[in-house]
Amino acid sequence: MKRYMEILAFCMLFMAFFLSGCSLSPTNTGVLIGTNLALSGKGMSYSTSTERGIELAKDMVNDRGGLLGRPVQIVSVDNHGKPEDAEAAIQQLTVRHVSAIIGPDLTDCTRAVLPNVEAVKIPLISPACTQPDITVDPKSHEVYRYIFRAAYIDASQGRAMADYALKQLHVKRAAVFYYPDKTYAQGLAEYFRSAFAASGGEVPVYIPVEEVQDLTKYLSLLQRENVDVIYLPGYDDWTIPAITLLRSHGISQPLLGPDGWNGPKMERDVDTSYLTQVYYTDHYAGHDASEAARRFSQAYYEKYGEWPDSYAALGYDAFMMTAEAVERCQSAEAPDVARELEKTIDYDGATGTISLDANHDAIKDVFIMTFKDGQPELAATIPKDRQTQ
C-alpha cells in the first residue's frame, strides 16, 4: 500500500509539473512577435538598427502592461542576408506560433518568403523594403493577403526626388547611373527618369554601371551633355564609393539618391568636403520632425546611448503598427492580426503619419535629407499628394 501511495504521489507530481510546463508555454505566457532580419552578413548595417528599434518598441509596450494583459516576447531569427535563410526563418517562426513577423529588410530576402508567408497565414510587415511587388503579385496583380510594409514604395521616393530636383534645385538636365544587378536600383532609376521627364526635365545620360571605377569613363560625357544633376540609386556599398569617386574627380553638381544611401554611414565614411550639394530621400528626419519622432529618438538615446537612424525608426514603427493591430482586434491569432493591420489609418509614428492603402503599402510623406557640417539634416518634406503626380 505504501509503495502504491508513493507511485501515486509521484504521478501526481509529474502531472502537476507537466501541466505547469504547458501553462508556461510561450503562447500562454506572452504574445510572440517574430523577427526575420540580417543580423549578420549582407544587410547587417541596416537590420542591426532595425532590431534595436523593435526591441525598444517591445520594451515600451511591456512597460505599459504588454498586449492583451500579457508581456510581448521577441522570437529573433538571423537570415544572414540570404534568401534561402529567410525562407528557413519563416518555418522556424511558424513552429513557434508567432502572431506576426517583422522583416526582412532586404528586397531579395522578402521576395523569397512571399509564398511561405501566404501559405502559413502569418502577417509579415517589412520595415524597410520599398520594392513595389512585394505586396502585389506582379503577374496576377492580386494583393498578397499577409504581406505589409512600414516604408513607402520606390515609386514614391523616385517621384519625390524628381519633384525636389526640379522645383527646389531648379535643374533641368539629369544623369542617372545605377547598379544593374539590383532590382532596387533599376526600379528607382526608372521611377526618377519617368517623373523627371514628365515634369519637363531631360535625362540625356542613363547608364548602368556595375564597377564604380567605370564611372570615370563617363566624366567627359557629363560635361558634353551639360548635365546639372546626377541621380545615383543603390545601396551604400555601391553609392558611397561612387560619391567619393565623382567628388574626387571634380564633379561638383548636386548628387541625389534614395533611402539606401544610409545617411549615418555616409557621415562616418565620406569626407565631409564631399558632402556638399548631396541630397537623398529617407523615412526618418530626426528628432525634430514631430512629437512622435522626438519621443522615439529620446527613448532610443536613453536605451542605446546614440541617436537612431531611419532603419531603427522603421523597425520601431513596424512593431508599433503590429501592436496597435493586436490591441484593436483583441486577439493574438495571426489571421486576426492580419485583418486588423489592413485597417491601419493615421498611425502616428517615428517616421511620420502612416496609413496603409489597398495594396498594404505605407502612404506617408517623403523626407529629403542633406548634410550640414557633415551631418544629416532635413532639407524638405514632400507631401504624400505630390508623390503621385
From TrEMBL:
Matching InterPro entries: BCAA_transport, Leu-bd, Peripla_BP_I
Signal peptide residue numbers: 1-21
Superkingdom: Bacteria
Repeat in keyword set: no
Domain Leucine-binding protein stretches: 33-374
Signal in keyword set: yes
Keywords: Signal
SUPFAM superfamilies membership: Periplasmic binding protein-like I (SSF53822)
Family as reported in the entry's similarity comment: Belongs to the leucine-binding protein family.
Protein name as annotated: Amino acid/amide ABC transporter substrate-binding protein
